[in-house]
């Protein structure tokens, strides 16, 4: 039996919530994010702002240059989370198989659902209507036999879209897709694939596997599978986090090494508190450093024995910092993350580590 998978994505979520709550913002180019003179970044852009080329993750200063009339609203995550809870309550009233991807999007397996509805399009339409009735916000939905196709379909006719890819239309749909549509293919990987003469998803089928692996490594086998429209991944409800991180972009570049060390130590301590709060342990500590010229590097250290001791995590983060040019080159952004998470400790890391 073919599965019926939905991918539902709220439209310009943060910006739409702000426009809903303040009628003066409706029809205006709105972005949610930080101030341009403090190196703010666009967290979300309304469709009116997107018409000027503004998009999420763009530096706010760039966004203002593209659209001088831009209305900048500081984020209110407490409000966004409240709306998100209402939306996900709708999802879970239809099926327990809900896999959150973020506050505003999720996969749903509605092969069996609370309404006993056999058609995925009907389920998607009813969910979209419930979301609008309860939140006055729109969502776009994709319906397909697997997650790969459903996610692409949800973005096909935004905003307020609904696209269905039935099994007998998969081949025709795949033929329309550019190489960028692949799951996990960003601009750099897309350039590598185009250098091989692969411009469409279907081009990958005939590509030599060894040449493909030479260009994109282990991703090659996954791309071959997706190029045939195959994706057997199940919808995984409440998928446990595999990592946690925090980062900060500074209003002015940091040049003093001691200040940088203090920032890294504070972030590492926050990571340790998160591990303690969630009763988890980590094996890997990673730091991220972005210099003033936007060059970004990461450094990681892993151990066999998991830990959540703050002094160990701070010590490892500072060791990794010493392997960077921080203090010699101005620093724009710092971050610390923990990964390789487990629920149970299997011992602790000896504090007399070689790097100390």
Itemize the secondary structure elements and their pairings.
Layout: E1 5-10, H1 13-21, E2 30-33, E3 42-45, H2 47-50, H3 60-66, E4 71-73, H4 77-94, E5 98-102, E6 105-109, H5 120-135, E7 139-144, H6 147-154, E8 162-164, H7 170-175, H8 187-195, H9 203-206, H10 209-216, H11 219-227, E9 243-254, H12 257-278, E10 282-291, E11 296-307, H13 310-321, E12 331-339
Parallel strand pairs: 2-4, 7-8
Antiparallel strand pairs: 1-6, 1-7, 2-3, 5-6, 9-12, 10-11, 10-12
Question: What this model shows, in words?
Answer:
This protein folds into 3 domains: 1-166, Reverse transcriptase/Diguanylate cyclase domain (Alpha-Beta Plaits); 177-227, 5' to 3' exonuclease, C-terminal subdomain (DNA polymerase, domain 1, Orthogonal Bundle), CATH 1.10.150.20; 243-339, DNA polymerase, Y-family, little finger domain (Dna Ligase, domain 1), CATH 3.30.1490.100. Helices cover 37% and strands 22% of the residues. The protein contains 13 helices and 12 strands. It has a 5-stranded mixed β-sheet with strand order 5-6-1-7-8. The model is unreliable at 345-356 (pLDDT under 50).
